[in-house]
Design brief:
There is one protein chain. The chain contains eleven helices and 17 strands. 23% of the residues lie in helices and 27% in strands. The strands form four sheets. Strands 4, 5, 6, 9, 16 and 17 form a six-stranded mixed β-sheet that branches. By secondary structure, the chain is α/β, with parallel strands linked by helices. Bound molecules: NADP nicotinamide-adenine-dinucleotide phosphate and zinc ion (2 copies). The site of NADP nicotinamide-adenine-dinucleotide phosphate has 32 residues, from helix 1, helix 4 and helix 5.
C-alpha cells in the first residue's frame, strides 16, 4: 500500500494519509474532472477499500448541480460502492484482506440516538455522516464518495455482499435497491396488492423487481414508451404511459400503493387520484422544488402520502441477502469514469437502462 508519512523534527509520525484519485465537481456548473485527494489514516476499526464499481444515483446529479442548496465543493460523488478490502485497522475484524465489501449512502452516525439503536441509522437525529457531501465527526473533514479509487470506512458501516452476484450489478443495490426495498417491507407490500411504480429509472426498476418478487401486481407509469418491454421483463404486469389520459383515467381508484421515484417536479394530484380507499403514495423521489397537492385527493378515499429514506444497516444487509437468495440485481450500463459527464446528460433525459455504473479500473 502506498502511504505518505511526514515526520516531524522529533521523528514522530505526524500525518499518514492515503492518496486517492477521483473525479470531482468544483462548482454547481462545472463538469466533473480529475481530482487528487487523500483519505484519512486508518483508525483501529477502519477498513481501506479498493473501489471496483460505483453506481450513479440521480441524487449525485441533484447534489453536483446544487439543486438541494447544501452542496460542498470540490465534491466527489458516489454512494453505491463495491470494492475489495486492502487493509484493516488494528482492531478491524469483520473482513479479511481481499474480501468484497460494500458502502452505501452513509459512513457513520451518532450511534446513540434511538434511531441508531433501532438500526434506523438513516434517520439518525444526532448527526448522520453521509458518504459524500458531509462533514466527518471532526466537523471539518469533508467526506468524499465512490467516484474514486479507494475509500476508508469504519467496519461497522460496511455491508457484506452475498457470493456469486456480479459486482457491477450489486453496486446499485446500495442505494436504489435499499431505497425501494425498505418502504415495500415497511408497508408489507405483497400478494393481493396493486402497486404503481412511477418513473422507470434506477430506483423505479428496483421497485418493480422487489414488488413483483414480493407477490404484488405491478404497473409501471412512465413517460418513456421504449421502456415498456423492459418493464414487463422485470416483472411488471402492466405499463401505462402517463400522457395517455384515457388509460390513466381507467386506473382511477386502482392502486393500494404508488412508489413515486420521479426526480423532477410533477403533478401529485393526478397520481393521488389513482389510489383506492386507504391507498398510500410513497414518495422516494426528491425533486428540488416544492410540490403542491389538493387535500381533496387525500380526504376523498382516506388516502395518505408518505416518504421513505434509504434504509438502515440491518435492513440493507437483509436486502443484500434477499438479493443473493433470489438472484436479484440491477440492470446496468457500465461506463469508464471518463464518460461521466455525457452520462449525466443522458440521465437528465431519462435515457437510463437502468443504472449507470462506473468501472473504477478506468481510473487506476
Ligand atoms: P433516475 O434513474 O434518473 O430515474 C428517474 C425516472 O423518473 C426517470 O428515468 C423517468 O422515468 C422519470 N422522470 C424523470 N423526469 C421526469 C419528469 N420531469 N416527469 C416525470 N417523470 C420523470 O433517478 P433515480 O436515481 O432513480 O432517483 C430518482 C429520485 O429519487 C431522485 O430525485 C433521487 O434524488 C431520489 N432518491 C431518493 C432516495 C431516498 O432515500 N428517498 C434515494 C435515492 C434517490 P420514465 O422514463 O419511466 O418516465
Ligand atoms: Zn442514491
Ligand atoms: Zn443517531
Amino acid at each position: 500500500m502506498q502511504i505518505f508519512a511526514a515526520r516531524s523534527a522529533r521523528r514522530e509520525i505526524v500525518r499518514i494519509m492515503i492518496p486517492v484519485k477521483g473525479y470531482a465537481a468544483r462548482s454547481a456548473t462545472s463538469a466533473l474532472a480529475p481530482f487528487a485527494f487523500e483519505r484519512r489514516e486508518l483508525r483501529p476499526k477502519d477498513v481501506l477499500i479498493d473501489i471496483l464499481y460505483c453506481g450513479i444515483c440521480h441524487s449525485d446529479l441533484h447534489l453536483v448541480r446544487n439543486e438541494w442548496g447544501r452542496s460542498i465543493y470540490p465534491m466527489v460523488p458516489g454512494h453505491e460502492i463495491v470494492g475489495r478490502v486492502i487493509e484493516n485497522g488494528k482492531h478491524a475484524r469483520r473482513f479479511k484482506k481481499g474480501d468484497v465489501a460494500a458502502v452505501g449512502c452513509f459512513v457513520d452516525s451518532c450511534r446513540k440516538c434511538s434511531n441508531c439503536k433501532d438500526g434506523l441509522q438513516q434517520y439518525c437525529t444526532g448527526g448522520l455522516i453521509l458518504t459524500y457531501n458531509s462533514y466527518e465527526k471532526d466537523g471539518k473533514t469533508i467526506t468524499r464518495g465512490g467516484y474514486s479509487t479507494r475509500i476508508v470506512v469504519d467496519e461497522d458501516y460496511l455491508l457484506k455482499v452475498p457470493p456469486k452476484l456480479p459486482l457491477e450489478k450489486v453496486a446499485p443495490l446500495l442505494c436504489a435497491g435499499i431505497t425501494t426495498y425498505s418502504p415495500l417491507r415497511y408497508w408489507e407490500v405483497g400478494k393481493g396488492h396493486n402497486v404503481a411504480v412511477l418513473g422507470l429509472g434506477g430506483l423505479g426498476h428496483m421497485a418493480v423487481k422487489f414488488a413483483s418478487a414480493f407477490g404484488a401486481e405491478v404497473t409501471v407509469l412512465s413517460g418513456s414508451p421504449n421502456k415498456q418491454r423492459d418493464a414487463k421483463r422485470m416483472g411488471a404486469s402492466d405499463f401505462v404511459l402517463t400522457r395517455d389520459a384515457e388509460k390513466m383515467q381507467d386506473l382511477s381508484n386502482h392502486f393500494d400503493f404508488t412508489i413515486d421515484t420521479v426526480s423532477a417536479g410533477h403533478d401529485l394530484d393526478s397520481y393521488l387520484a389513482l389510489l383506492r380507499t386507504n391507498g398510500v403514495m410513497i414518495c422516494v423521489g426528491l425533486p428540488s422544488g416544492e410540490e403542491q397537492l389538493s387535500p381533496f385527493n387525500l380526504v376523498l378515499g382516506r388516502r395518505s402520502i408518505a416518504g421513505s429514506l434509504i434504509g438502515g444497516l440491518p435492513e440493507t444487509q437483509e436486502m443484500l441477502n434477499y438479493c443473493g437468495r433470489h438472484n436479484i440485481t440491477a440492470d446496468v450500463e457500465v461506463i469508464p469514469i471518463q464518460q461521466v459527464n455525457s452520462t449525466y446528460k443522458r440521465i437528465l433525459k431519462s435515457d437510463v437502462r437502468y443504472r449507470f455504473v462506473i468501472d473504477l479500473a478506468s481510473l487506476k
